[in-house]
Amino acid sequence: MKRSAIYFSLTFVAVAAGIPLLSGFVGNDTEAYTSNKDLRTLAPFDMWQGTPINEDGTFRNLYQPFDSRFSDLVKWKLSKNPLAERKKKDSRTLSVQSASELVASSDDYLIWLGHASFLIKKEGVTYLIDPILIDNFFLKRQSELPLSLSELPAIDYILISHNHRDHCDRATIEFLAERYPHAEFLTGLGVGKVIAPWLSGQQVQEAGWFQQYTMAEDQAEVIFVPTRHWSRRGLSDENKTLWGGFYFRFTDTSVYFMGDSGYGPHYMDIRNALGSPDYALLGVGAFEPKWFMHQSHISPTDAIKVFHELEGRFFFPMHFGTFDLSDEPLLMPLDILLENEGEIDGTLIFPTVGKNIW
């Protein structure tokens, strides 16, 4: 295969799967910031000025510039995977139980649908986070959904953490938009333009970091919070849309959804600004090889460190076991967590797809 063909092939795969692929861009030291002027900001510290942007208007991380090159992708893909044999022999899949009766009941629930997808019903409102409900050419589920698409309940809010295809799926969003014409989308700055062609006139709220979405008075507070990540969906849109996580403050409990993130000081900022979450939904997968993935995803041991910094009560691991995105075996992140469970200052909830986490 010619070098140009190899380049195109790897580039296409990387963009489709949300694999880091930047052209040596490491950001700059500008002091430009942005936000949605229509939303309330809950500043993490006195000097907070908003979400940082570069001179060209692209977004950047708070503390660590993202430094990834195409040559890194080639190096990873052409290197031998030391976990390959173990991965080949490990045929385990996630534990899955039906959620059909639960979602049909009047009960509140927090349900993992696999990967970074969650279904929440609390205080009479239903939220769907990062739904990837339909397989596509690059993403094939290794675990079943806990309910059929026809069994999904009425959805009030659909939350999209960033534009990578394992979090923001066109076919899924088109299906949801057609089925739930009154649902509202909550996401980060710029993402509205990505999903607008797939919608059926739904309202979209775009937030900067530490901004609170506008909700009804009797509904939860939902705040968009920072992650250490990046964005790209095509070949020329790197970091033009914002990435992040979500923090829910209900009447009697709080939930932090991490989104995709490497390790960094922003976790402490989140705790300082919004308090310690009762439930921390933390990514633990797609972390090998660490030299390549650490800027995008935390490892299971780093997730324990993050959980302690957040001072959370319940630790629920996600972002593993559903899609094959990296070098480690699908359930290796869970193995590592269980081996280190005694070091966790809090309660590790065993991750079962479809089970009520509350």
From TrEMBL:
Gene3D superfamilies cross-referenced by the UniProt entry: Ribonuclease Z/Hydroxyacylglutathione hydrolase-like (3.60.15.10)
Start and end residues of each Metallo-beta-lactamase domain: 114-319
UniProt keyword terms in alphabetical order: Hydrolase
Gene Ontology CC annotations of this record: cytoplasm
Keyword Hydrolase tagged: yes
InterPro entries assigned to the protein according to its UniProt record, in alphabetical order: Metallo-B-lactamas, RibonucZ/Hydroxyglut_hydro
Pfam families, per the entry: Lactamase_B_2
SUPFAM superfamilies, A to Z: Metallo-hydrolase/oxidoreductase
GO MF terms, alphabetically ordered: hydrolase activity
PANTHER family: N-ACYL-PHOSPHATIDYLETHANOLAMINE-HYDROLYZING PHOSPHOLIPASE D
Protein name per Swiss-Prot or TrEMBL: Putative Zn-dependent hydrolase
Source organism of the structure: Lunatimonas lonarensis
